[in-house]
Specification:
Elements: E1 3-10, H1 16-30, E2 36-43, E3 50-57, H2 60-66, H3 70-79, E4 88-93
Antiparallel strand pairs: 1-3, 1-4, 2-3
């Protein structure tokens, strides 16, 4: 079954631009992964420190493989000190797309 993860990220105000740069780099590689339907980096319109990463994959295997890629691991290590609080990922099953 197709799956998506909505990752909510709260970034320190002085790290917003660095977070965006690292996240766009990760997104550029992620959309080329086998099984990737979509990977969006979104910034809250009313709070520039709040982000949503929307990651959609054909199945759980593809979603799990994403976390083993070099670009994801680089992103995770790079942005960890930028976060104002731990990120929150919520998994959903895609019923229609």
């Amino acid at each position: 079954m197709a799956t998506t993860t909505c990752v909510h990220v709260w970034v320190k105000p002085d790290k917003v631009e660095e977070f965006i740069q690292a996240s766009v780099e990760n997104q550029t590689h992620s959309v080329n992964e086998p099984g990737n339907f979509r990977f969006d980096v979104c910034q809250d319109a009313s709070d520039p420190c709040k982000f949503l990463l929307y990651e959609a994959y054909t199945d759980e295997k593809s979603a799990a493989a994403h976390k083993e890629t070099a670009h994801y691991k680089k992103w995770r290590e790079t942005v960890a000190p930028f976060m104002a609080q731990p990120r929150e990922g919520i998994r959903y099953n895609i019923l229609a797309h």
